[in-house]
Structure formats: C-alpha cells, structure tokens
Write a structure and sequence with these properties.
It contains three helices and four strands.
C-alpha cells in the first residue's frame, strides 16, 4: 500500500467528528436524515444538492418527500 502521508481515520473517529449525523453524499454538509427513494433504499442528499439534481433532471421530488432517481445512483453521482 502506498503512503500518501495522510492519517487514516477509522469509522468511529469519522462519525464522532459530525456527532453521528449523516452527511450529504456530494457536499458533506450535515443533514437531518437520509431521504427515502421510490422503489426502496435511502440517499443522503442536502436540500441544495437535491435542487441542483432536479435542475439537471437526475431526480424528482415526490409530494410525500420521497426521491425518485431518473437514472441509477452511480450514474447520478457520475453526472453530478
């Protein structure tokens, strides 16, 4: 393994820095809770990233608060 001079952080240390709150997948801002995805699962997106994803046509917010991805999650991540 190559050492890039960065300190390794284990899961306990990483989660203790943000008080156990989930982080947005894109901008790492703390969010209250992950959103439910139509068809099953959850995603951690903040409201600002959700708006940007909607503008790009990568997701649709339903009236009940669930998110409907227009493409598979990995494609959404790649295009964002």
């Amino acid at each position: 393994m190559v050492d890039h001079g960065t300190e390794s952080i284990g899961p306990k240390e990483a989660s203790s820095k943000n008080n156990g709150h989930p982080l947005c997948l894109f901008c790492l801002v703390e969010i209250d809770k992950p959103r439910k995805v139509t068809g099953g699962g959850r995603v951690s997106f903040c409201n600002i990233c959700i708006e940007q994803l909607e503008k790009k046509g990568l997701l649709v917010m339903n009236e009940d608060g669930t998110i409907e991805l227009t493409k598979p999650l990995l494609d959404v991540i790649g295009e964002f």
